Amino acid sequence: MPEFKIAPLNSQPMVCAALSEILIEAVASGGSVSFMHPLAQGTAENFWRQSLASADRNERIVLGAFDGENLIGTVTLLLDLPPNQPHRAEIAKMMTRIDHRGRGVARALMHEAERMAAARGRSMLVLDTAVEDGASGLYEKIGFQLTGVIPDYALKPHGGLTGTMIYWKRIEARPATGL
């Protein structure tokens, strides 16, 4: 299995542009990541500018997977949760470029997100994924437990409704200094 460089992303314009390309590609291919097709470039860029600004404030971590210099995947670890949930983090916006799917990119991103959550003292991860064409198989293989399915939860990017599957995973919190 190839090795990919995984690193936190920052709010540089080139990073925002690359993330926007991945988001537009994911939505165009039917990915249920909160947006409808066709997704305008400006809408995608605005989303990522706001997400990366939130990362700059340490409210989330946006991770990128790189094949050489090319950004080929991303996942977001949401950390800014209500005061009664300091032990948990949420996984969001898992996306891999179409030409890199099936090569371990998503798995590598998820492992790094889990490591970073544990290093920040988090002991519970939660996520959701679409019933149709979601990543439930991956999540189950890496230890996430299915809580249940909510039918007709969201519109699919090309229309029609899909349910969402809610997952959780306990992890060992390993607070580290300097994070």
CATH C-level label of the domain at 5-123: Alpha Beta
Main pleated-sheet profile:
7 strands, mixed
The residue-averaged pLDDT reads 95
Shape: globular
Q: Supply the helix-strand structural class.
A: alpha+beta
Number of strands: 7
CATH architecture of the domain at 5-123: 3-Layer(aba) Sandwich
Order of helices and strands: EHHEEEHEHEE
CATH topology type of the domain at 5-123: Aminopeptidase
Describe the strand arrangement of the main beta sheet, using strand numbers: 1-2-3-4-5-7-6
Percent strand equals 25-35%
Proportion in helices: 25-40%
CATH homologous superfamily (4th level) name of the domain at 5-123: Gcn5-related N-acetyltransferase (GNAT)
Which regions contain 5 or more consecutive residues with pLDDT less than 50? none
Alpha carbon gyration radius: 16 Å
Would you give an account of this structure?
The chain has 179 residues and is α+β, with helices and mostly antiparallel strands. The protein has a domain at 5-123: 3-Layer(aba) Sandwich (Aminopeptidase), CATH 3.40.630. It is 30% helix and 32% strand. The protein is built from four helices and seven strands; from the N terminus they run βααβββαβαββ. It has helices spanning 13-28, 41-56, 105-119, 136-141; strands at 5-8, 60-67, 70-78, 88-96, 124-130, 145-155, 161-170. It has a seven-stranded mixed sheet, sandwiched between helices. Strand 4 (88-96), helix 3 (105-119) and strand 5 form a beta-alpha-beta unit. The mean pLDDT is 95.
